[in-house]
Amino acid sequence: MLALCRAYRQVALTWRGHYQLLFGDGVPGWQPSAALREQARARFDRLAAGVARAVHAGAAGPPELTAWAVWVACHGHVSVELRGYAELVPDSAAAFDAVVLRCLGQPPPGAPPDDPR
Description:
The chain has helices at residues 2-14, 16-23, 34-56, 63-82, 92-103. It is mainly alpha-helical. The chain has one domain.
């Protein structure tokens, strides 16, 4: 799951313009069509299926809510990073991993398992 999220981040950082067009203000007033929303739902369902496997393997939370948390965390982190706020943390990639892992109910690398952060 973490590898999938890292790939999402890498695509966004590599293809900034495309990412902004999809999730930013690329075209003022643009709204996705019903067909595009259906495609987005199909991709979200794939994410939810992956999270369901992670939940089955011990991650916390109901699969659809956990998938939502993972997607929002990935999207939010990438959006903040693309807007130039990555310097607020010493290592943006490590911060990204920590956010995703916390959504999955796991401690970030280097933190004790019972660390509430």
